[in-house]
Amino acid sequence: MNIGIFDSGIGGMTLLHQAMLMMPREKFIFYADTDHVPYGTKSREQVISYVDAVIRFMAEQDCKAVVIACNTATAVAAEQMRAKYADLPIIGIEPAVKPAVEESDGKRVMVVATPLTVHEKKLQNLVERVDDAHLVDLLELPRLVEFAERGEFVSDEVTRYLKNKLSAYPLEKYGELVLGCTHFNFFKDTFQKLMPSGTHMIDGSQGTVRQLMRILEAKGALADKEGNMCRDWERNKNDICVRYFVSGREILDADRLNMFNDLHQRLEKMRCL
To answer: Which of these is catalytic: 63, 70, 230, 241?
Structure first.
């Protein structure tokens, strides 16, 4: 059986990459809903309908669990999908606000996300629950999704955009940067240059994969109970089974598969920062 991982676009590759490292003996289906990217600027009703269609597709592909690798989709649709597909474990990602606040040591915490994630009650309730000292600021960065989808990860335009968006904040007061959209992991090197030295960048990918592993193990459905991590990405990447889909269409041609490989290379570089 497969593990389905999906996002509105390539952002979910962040979580897929982490899952491939932590669960190398599993079989994965990755689904990028590029026909409808970005989710973060759509209405709630639209996002719910997109997520419903993808999960229905994953169920038809013999998936033993589905991971919503999109903070926006998780915030908007996860609860409804769990109720509708009660027999299928559905795991959602959310911004890693709690660990960031716990590790902040009194410094401020910046959470960057899409507009819909920022304005959803789910994130606002999470911040209210864990941010007793009122350290958290939320910042919308919608254009980063656009940059990522066209493969523009390092450029003067990306730097100018982030500099402009961050300019209103006293950055020297921040110790934690929460990447609240999976697309944003592709830009860690630029964030690193713009944020104060020593700023800790955190996202929810690793915690989400751990939760996925716990759920599968409890069901007796985890392929590798030891959870042996793939220590050498370059050596082992071709032994991990993944099928890639774009809005329901399987990617089989070599050039497009090489594009996904290039994205993994980028993510591995960002992971090692």
So the answer is: 70
Contact 92, 32 (CB under 8 A): no
Residue 236 vs residues 36, 106, 210, 242, 252: alpha-carbon distances, Å: 32, 41, 20, 13, 21
- Cis before 95 (ω within 30): no
CA neighbor of 147 nearest in space, from 117, 195, 181: 181
**Which entry of 181, 230, 241, 272 is annotated as an active-site residue?**
181
What residue has token string 């904040």? 169
241 is catalytic: no
Reference 144, options 180, 106, 194, 103; nearest CA is 180
> Is 181 designated active site?
yes
> Does an H or E element contain 200, and which?
strand 200-202
Which range among 21-25, 48-52, 197-201, 248-252 shows the weakest confidence by mean pLDDT?
21-25
**DSSP letter assigned to residue 42:** S
pLDDT tens-place string over residues 87-101 = 999 999 989 999 999
